[in-house]
Amino acid sequence: MPFTSDAELDLLFPSDQIPAFVRKQLPAELHIRPLASTDYRRGHLSVLSVLTVVTDPGEDAWRAQFEALRAAPRTYYGIVIVDKASDRIVAVGTVFIERKFLRGLGSVGHIEDIAVDKSQQGKKLGLRIIQALTGISENSGCYKTILNCSDSNIPFYEKCGFQKKENEMAKYA
Ligand code: ACO
């Protein structure tokens, strides 16, 4: 598939919200942009499956989920890195902006679902995704950006400028 420019795509949020300094540091053969309504066809789920079990809901249901995220403006920022030669997605990540009543009606950015295709790991793409999401969170006025991760990923997030704080609790249905 030939590379599709941002102008030709139906995006989750405007491209210019991705910090320019992150764009500049990417190799020329890669492009970082917001998630697009047709990214089901560019391997979005296959990259996410590097992270955990992914059940393919089919393109229509995937698209309905995309529209549900877009219906909450300034809240869900899903981004992807695309290999221009193949127009396939090689890295993904999301930041969700939570609006609070405390801290003077402050907001918190929650980073979720970071994944880099196995063939592309170790090339700083994870770092670029985290830098972009943290930039979006801070430019949205968030007073902090947080995430949960496994012990084995702590060194990666420390390299991204995060530090360990508190504990994660979970209750699965
Ligand atoms: N242990 C130690 N150091 C690491 C690790 C690790 N597991 N992973 C990366 N690093 C280091 C790199 O060596 C690099 O260090 P350097 O600057 O000294 O060279 C730095 O962290 C940046 O690494 P990247 O090249 O940007 O890492 P990569 O592109 O491979 O992305 C990621 C890291 C996202 C963890 C990737 O390996 C991946 O997709 N893993 C499987 C899915 C996963 O675990 N996702 C994170 C879940 S947590 C969440 O989603 C909030």
UniProtKB/TrEMBL annotation:
<dbReference type="GO" id="GO:0004343">
    <property type="term" value="F:glucosamine 6-phosphate N-acetyltransferase activity"/>
</dbReference>
<dbReference type="InterPro" id="IPR039143">
    <property type="entry name" value="GNPNAT1-like"/>
</dbReference>
<comment type="similarity">
    <text>Belongs to the acetyltransferase family. GNA1 subfamily.</text>
</comment>
<dbReference type="Pfam" id="PF00583">
    <property type="entry name" value="Acetyltransf_1"/>
</dbReference>
<protein>
    <recommendedName>
        <fullName>Glucosamine 6-phosphate N-acetyltransferase</fullName>
        <ecNumber>2.3.1.4</ecNumber>
    </recommendedName>
</protein>
<comment type="pathway">
    <text>Nucleotide-sugar biosynthesis; UDP-N-acetyl-alpha-D-glucosamine biosynthesis; N-acetyl-alpha-D-glucosamine 1-phosphate from alpha-D-glucosamine 6-phosphate (route I): step 1/2.</text>
</comment>
<comment type="subunit">
    <text>Homodimer.</text>
</comment>
<dbReference type="InterPro" id="IPR016181">
    <property type="entry name" value="Acyl_CoA_acyltransferase"/>
</dbReference>
<dbReference type="GO" id="GO:0006048">
    <property type="term" value="P:UDP-N-acetylglucosamine biosynthetic process"/>
</dbReference>
<keyword id="KW-0256">Endoplasmic reticulum</keyword>
<dbReference type="GO" id="GO:0005789">
    <property type="term" value="C:endoplasmic reticulum membrane"/>
</dbReference>
<keyword id="KW-0472">Membrane</keyword>
<keyword id="KW-0808">Transferase</keyword>
<feature type="domain" description="N-acetyltransferase">
    <location>
        <begin position="30"/>
        <end position="173"/>
    </location>
</feature>
<dbReference type="InterPro" id="IPR000182">
    <property type="entry name" value="GNAT_dom"/>
</dbReference>
<keyword id="KW-0012">Acyltransferase</keyword>
